[in-house]
């Protein structure tokens, strides 16, 4: 499960890197983004790429928030197929966090791309309407089986190249098989990981030290 990441780019870097035409929300750097929070997303509105905010985590009628969707099962359920066909966005990211467990301890590590200070994770979204018909868009990030890559057995987010982003944000493309085939993540060797403060475990901890490298012994958390 991908349940924590950071976005530490300046706005100018973000808009240039993802060719964003319109910024529709306030933007500020984030160091420890967690589920149920409002997160920056990029979506196609008409002919423009727009920066908006969505709640991270769907609120389906059958249960708790769904923050991730597996790339291999996107076509298996009707509600996922509907979002895949018509409601797609990308989540800009500077790095995501993983947890490694060894014996009775676990440690927090940050994963970054070796050459790209910014990359994109695919997402699908829905719109929640409350009893007063107020609309709240919410999204789920698409993940893949880690295969124990990067030293974790948790699912990892799919990371897209530019051609995949272009296809993903193209509203004319609605074929599930084509969209799923575009979600081939960048190679694991393109990423590096380093230990960070265990304070990342605390969802309310939101300071620049979240992304600072520490000695491995300083990243340990007792379980």
TrEMBL record:
Top-rank taxon, per record: Bacteria
Alphabetized GO MF terms: hydrolase activity
Keyword ATP-binding: no
Alphabetical keyword list: Covalent protein-DNA linkage, DNA damage, DNA-binding, Hydrolase, Lyase, Protease
EC numbers for this chain: 3.4.-.-
EC category name: hydrolase
InterPro entries with a match to the protein in the record: SRAP, SRAP-like
PANTHER family given in the database record: ABASIC SITE PROCESSING PROTEIN HMCES, DC12-RELATED
Family of the protein in this entry: Belongs to the SOS response-associated peptidase family.
Protein name: Abasic site processing protein
């Amino acid at each position: 499960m991908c349940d924590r990441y950071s976005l530490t780019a300046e706005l100018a870097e973000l808009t240039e890197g993802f060719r964003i035409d319109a910024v529709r929300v306030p933007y500020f750097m984030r160091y420890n983004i967690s589920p149920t929070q409002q997160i920056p997303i990029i979506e196609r509105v008409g002919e423009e790429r727009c920066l908006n905010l969505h709640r991270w985590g769907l609120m389906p009628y059958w249960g708790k928030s769904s923050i991730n969707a597996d790339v291999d099962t996107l076509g298996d359920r009707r509600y996922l197929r509907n979002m895949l066909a018509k409601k797609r966005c990308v989540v800009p990211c500077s790095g995501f966090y993983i947890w490694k467990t060894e014996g009775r301890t676990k440690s927090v590590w940050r994963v970054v791309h070796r050459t790209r200070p910014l990359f994109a994770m695919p997402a699908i979204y829905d719109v929640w309407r409350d009893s007063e018909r107020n609309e709240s868009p919410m999204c789920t990030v698409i993940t893949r089986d880690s295969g124990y890559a990067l030293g974790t057995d948790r699912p990892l987010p799919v990371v897209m190249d530019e051609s995949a982003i272009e296809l993903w944000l193209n509203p004319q493309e609605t074929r599930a098989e084509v969209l799923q085939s575009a979600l081939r993540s960048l190679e694991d060797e393109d990423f590096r990981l380093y230990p960070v403060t265990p304070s990342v475990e605390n969802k309310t901890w939101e300071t620049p030290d979240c992304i600072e490298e520490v000695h491995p012994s300083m990243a340990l958390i007792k379980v």
